[in-house]
Amino acid sequence: MSASHLLSVADLGAAGIEEIMRMSDSFVEVSERAIPRVPALRGKTVVSLFYEESTRTRLSFETAARRLSADTMNFSVSTSSVKKGESLRDTVTTIEAMGIDALVVRHASAGVPWQVASWIGASVINAGDGWHEHPTQALLDCYTIRQARGSLDGMRIAIVGDVKHSRVARSDVLAFSLLGADVTLVAPPTLLPPSLAGWPVAVSHDLDEVLPKLDVVYLLRMQRERQTEALLPSLREYTATYGLTRGRARLLPDDAIVMHPGPMNRGVEIAAEVADLPRAVISQQVRNGVAVRMAVLFLLIGASPREAGGG
Ligand code: NCD
Prior knowledge:
Helix content: 25-40%
Number of domains: 2
Oligomer: single chain
Radius of gyration: 19 Å
Structural class: alpha/beta
Order of helices and strands: HEHEHEHEHEHEEHEHHEHH
Number of strands: 9
CATH class of the largest domain: Alpha Beta
Bound molecules: N-carbamoyl-L-aspartate
Number of helices: 11
């Protein structure tokens, strides 16, 4: 990774994604040690600046930074506070003045991480900007598919549900297709973006028809907090047509895996018992997220790669 920021999957390209996945292998190994810590980022400071709620992404970045021996600071900003560009800029320049190496940013507005990157010298990592992108989620998803199925090349992947409001879907579509997977979006028309021009995907409205042909089914959370109008007749009807129920999960080939970025709405997009099947790799996604974020932090702000494994 040659850039100093991680803002979009598009900046990485296939080669950048592969590099991060290779580096993640060694950090998975570190994470399995009795003392899962290496000194690679000793003396570096990583700050998380989250203007939107988060459980796994924030904890995952902080765990990743600590396992690399970086110092961490965490600003939890209430969503109702700073909204104006000026105030955001003041916040960010204040944080930078303390002397930091990386800033992990989540914000409800698309494009904010790019803005922040233009203001400061530290490395900026996009941890989710509005509906737009969530590149580290896509990286950990690629890593998890590669771990379960060997490669993404030629994999048939369906991304199901609320694509319209999903930054995860946007980053995953880019990453999966860059690595040679065949992506189908499955959703009611109201939950698809108004235009899919330029998206390297097929579209279906029939999950039952798609499931038997898949290697990976990726369920998205129904993002009710982002839906300003009634896009569905009812959640019950959505579940009946697009939910991965127990019966529907039986349509999948034996070696197909089930994924979800979390947080899950059990009983809406995924049945509770399906989320607990051995083929559901949702916990592996979370586990791999730490190693993948270690790789990202290390590649952005680490010194020589030789220091990575020592410890
Ligand atoms: C997602 C997010 O916040 O974009 N969660 C995550 O980071 N794993 C997906 C979601 O909120 O549905």
